Every structure is written in structure tokens, then in C-alpha cells.
């Protein structure tokens, strides 16, 4: 038996643990490479992530190479070579001996790795479960007997885990489950750009520069948790209603340039609050007086007072302050910037 | 063997796909059906250990009869798991691997064998920080099946399966939205605490602590996410006179995050407070603020704090001034949004 390497289950557990570590992928990679040394006694190892715009690999971590070799591994020639080998596709790990072309025809091998003393190696292409190309992990040995076929095939079993460890979006996908009925979502970057979340569609309310994203970014300066509020919305072909917006700051396990995840979900139980009442709650939450609300909405103060009375009874609150506090915590309000009367 | 390893790699990929997909409610069923590609089993069961570690609760059952399935939920099974050390070691075991005569295992002699399930294996499931999470049981009608290889492959897949069924994974990421965390715990509906993977605990967050009681009460009132201040050290009675001290250094910020998929679960995280951002408010003023936020009339606050109504009115005015708002309503909303208050206990200050 025992084509399975010794301690296989333990190795998987270790890699699983590393995948779950907080911090940037660059923090996880050195640990990952250390653990993989137990499987493949490599003399050189390099983790590279794809820069899809430049069609080059960027280094996340490396060990055991000289500067000229590293320069080549970063070059677009190297990426092109990997494309020719089919290493830009989701495929099982490939050793040098499995390559479809003789090693002598590979510039990386003939001009860099072999002269540096390497004799074998394995390339592991990293893809997300939804098919995004993440990068390439390469392990090079100085003994042609390693990695063994068994170690190579076992790496295939580890590949989805290794991909998780370097996928900047992975922990966002996990976190998005907090909003169990999320229908759409985006990631907001610190620069104000919008990225998509794997597995979730975008939403017209969540476009770059939209009022919802402006409110979302502003909410992050308050407290340290997540925030939820309502936004009026008429879906295509549907009737006027509200969607719930949830703003989750990006966890510490994502790259620092990601600011927050903004998700939409059904509005849920609005306790019979009308659109106008939800907008007035938005002003109450901002600490506004009835007088200020009246002049803003161009209605009489006694009309505001009547709205507030309805709000108190619907939220079962003894005062306007308490109604506002409850609305704030339950996300039962439309922020001022999103009110229809403001647009 | 080679083929088995290859197919296990395929299974690992498929499990990753299941783990990354939005939860559809049948993830665990899918995972168990994938394992059929490694071991053509006759029955399989996956259960999670409960909070008290007394027994398992089945998540999915394929092929075991009702009598056996109910037996899996008993303390007796839990004791047999202990005896085989499956709750402390991630090593998978076939029935033939037990270190004692396997006839001594009632689950084998009274349940498996009479049902014609002569072969089988079990593997403990563990969280990423190595806490026991649950059990995977697989049975076949053949003593020699699963083979040692297949057993080891299931053992190697087990951490991935655990990651799919681990309910604290989402909660762990949720805790990480809080920057500068000093420590945190998960608070279950039963008032017990669970550690968070990758975040240390904190002395203020021990089971039954006043802080966790306040966290649960705050959450019950508002749901969602609540933030408040809490004394980093105990208040001694003889220090209570110094009501005017600037307390900014002796308070920590607490963030309580509701976990919607599990309404009974909360995450409480203690955060290093951002130093200068908060206005100068005393511990006393911050406690009065929490009473005002609970809608207490001045009379009641005066009674609870042992002060005159006049003193409470004066305090309220000072709070409004210090928060720099135009009126009391705006001051309270500002305090609620920023988490600038100390939850009062049952009528007194937290101690």
C-alpha cells in the first residue's frame, strides 16, 4: 500500500490551519512552504500570483533561488512559457518529467533552473472553485527522484486548500454568509473602487460613486462592527419597495486595500413602517429635531409630530430618542442621503 | 491506488467547490455522496458534538436504520468515541484497528453486526484550531472494506469536511471585521463561551462574567451589532468618589456582533479603544448615558445612582455639552452610534 505519503492526514490538517490564519496571503505563504517541505524535499520553492492585466506572475514568497532566476520567473516570457505548458489551466500538478516538451526546450529550465543545480520540480496551478486563475506554486528539487508520483498526486489533493490560502477573496465569501439571504454584493476598496465577490452578482445600487456606497463608507467611521440600513428600490418590472443594505468591514484576513463588503438582501419585517416614516427615522437617527425635519421635508411640524407618533407605536418606543436607537440597531431606517425626497 | 488518490483529489476539489458556494442547505449531503467515490459504502453518518460535549447531533444520515441513527445521538456512543480516542486524535480508524477486542464496542456488536454492516470506519472531525467538532461514520458489508488506503484517504479528506460543517467558520471571519482586537469569544444561547480561532480570549470575557451578561442584554434589546464601553479593571468602592476623573485610559471598547444564521449566538470582542477620538466623559456620565438610552426617567436614574434629580439633570446637560450636540436627543444618538456608554447593571454601575 502506502502510495499515500506518511502523515497525510496531519499534512492536510496543517495546511487547513494555515489557510485559516489571519493576515495577508504573504504571511501565510512562508508557513505553507515550510509544511510542504515535509512532502517534497525541495531546494527551491516559489509561490506566484497572477497579475491578469500584465500577464505576469508576482511573487508572494520564494526560497532558494538566485536573483537572475527570480528575475526570469517574474518575466512575461516565463508566463508565456507556462501558458505553452498548459499551466494557465486548472489541471493536476505536473512534474518536469510529465512536461509535454523536452526540458531542454524550456528556457526557464535550460537557462536558469538546471544550471542552478535543480533536477526535478513540480508545478501546481492554483484556481478558485469558481474558476478564477490565482497563480502558480512551484517546488524544485536537486534529486530527480523527487517529488515522487505519490507526492505529486497528493499535492493534487492539497491544491484547493493551497488556493484558499492565497485567495484574497476567500474569507469574504465565508463572511458573506452572515447575511444568509444576501442577493448581491460588492467589495469597496479604500480607493473607492468596486470589486465583485465570487458567487454573488452585483447590483445597480452598488455602482462606483453611488449614494449607497457613500453612506456605506461613512458608516465605517462609527463604531467597530457592521451596519445595516434600508434603501428605497424598485426592481426592474417590480413595485416600489426597499432593500436591506449590510456593510461589513473587511476582515483582517483580507488585503489591506479592501475596505468593506456591501451586501443587499430582502428588507425583511418593516413592522408596517411606511416609506415616509422610514425616511423620518433616518433623520431621527442623525439626531435631528422635529422642526429641522419639518423644514427639510417641507411639511408642517405637526405633520412630523403625527408621523413620529405612528413610529413610536409601531416600534413600541416610549420616546423619539428610543425609537431612533431601536431603528438604528435593527437597521429600520433609510439614511438621509438615500431618501427619495432627497433625489 | 493511484486511481484512488486521483479520485480523492477530485473529491477534494468538489468539496472545495461546495465549501465556496453559497449555502444551499444540502452541503453536507453532497459531501457524503462525494465520499462514495472513495469508499462505496452502505451507510454513512455525520454528526456534530453539542456545546456541552455530552452527545452528537446527526446532521446527515445515509443508510443507517432509525434504531442505529438514534443510538448515534446517545451518550453511550459518545463514550465509545472517547474509548477509541477519536475525539482527541484525527487519525481515522477501521473497526479492525481498535486497540481492544472490538466486541466490546456495543455499536459494533449490537447495531452494526446485526444489520450486516461488518466493515466500517470512523474519523473525528476537528476545527482548524483542533477542537473536537464531530464524527464521520462509514459502514460497509465487507470486513476488509474500507481498505487501509481508502481509510487513510478519508482521514486526509476529513479536515476539509470539517471545514464545510464547522459552524464557527463564518463567526470567526465575523470577529475579524473588528480591528485592533485584544480578545474575543463566541457566546452561545446557553450562556457558554467558545474560543474563536486565531483570536485569544480575554479576562473580561470569561464564562458568567458581568461583561458577557451585559453583552447578552444589549444584544437582546437591539439585535444586530452593538458597541459599548467597559471598565478594564474592577471599580473599587473607595474610588467611586472620584466621579470627575477622565476615564479614557481605563475603559475598553466592546463590540457585540450578532450572528444571524445562529440567532442564539453572539461574538463579543474586546477592542483597544482609539485613544483621543472619544470626548472626555467620566465613568459616571457614561453609566447615566446608558440609562438614558434605555429610556429611564430622571427620577429612576436618580434612585439608582443615589443622587438627586437635580444632579441627574445637571449631568445630562453636561453630557450634551461634552458631546458637542445641540440637544439631548442628538447627544444620545451620537453616544449610541459610537458606543460611548457603559451598560448599567440591574440598577447600579457595573463592578
Please tell me about this protein's structure.
- The complex is a heterodimer of chains A (343) and B (351).
- Chain A has helices at residues 8-19, 25-36, 67-74, 76-84, 107-113, 149-166, 170-175, 211-219, 275-285, 290-297, 301-315, 320-330, and strands at residues 44-51, 56-63, 94-95, 120-127, 133-141, 184-189, 194-196, 227-233, 241-249, 258-266.
- With 343 residues, chain A is of the alpha+beta class.
- Chain A has three domains: 8-167, Beta-Lactamase; 168-268, Beta-Lactamase (2-Layer Sandwich), CATH 3.30.450; 271-343, Winged helix-like DNA-binding domain superfamily/Winged helix DNA-binding domain (Arc Repressor Mutant, subunit A, Orthogonal Bundle).
- In chain A, the strands form two sheets. In chain A, strands 2-1-5-4-3 form a five-stranded antiparallel β-sheet, sandwiched between helices.
- In chain A, helix 1 runs parallel beside helix 6 (149-166), helix 10 packs across helix 11 (301-315) and helix 11 (301-315) crosses helix 12 (320-330).
- The longest helix of chain A has 18 residues, at 149-166.
- Chain A is elongated, with a radius of gyration of 27 Å.
- The mean pLDDT of chain A is 90.
- Chain B is α+β, with helices and mostly antiparallel strands.
- Chain B contains twelve helices and ten strands.
- Chain B has helices at residues 2-20, 27-35, 66-72, 75-83, 106-112, 148-165, 168-175, 210-222, 283-293, 298-305, 309-323, 328-338; strands at residues 43-49, 56-62, 93-94, 119-126, 132-140, 181-187, 193-195, 225-231, 251-258, 266-271.
- In chain B, the strands form two sheets. Chain B has a five-stranded antiparallel β-sheet, with helices on both faces. In chain B, strands 7-6-10-9-8 form a five-stranded antiparallel β-sheet, sandwiched between helices.
- In chain B, a hairpin with a 6-residue loop joins strand 1 and strand 2.
- The radius of gyration of chain B is 27 Å and the shape is elongated.
- At the A-B interface, helix 1, helix 6, helix 7 and helix 12 of A face helix 1, helix 6, helix 7, strand 8 and strand 9 of B.
- Chain A: This is Response regulator transcription factor.
- Chain A: Keywords: DNA-binding, Transcription, Transcription regulation.
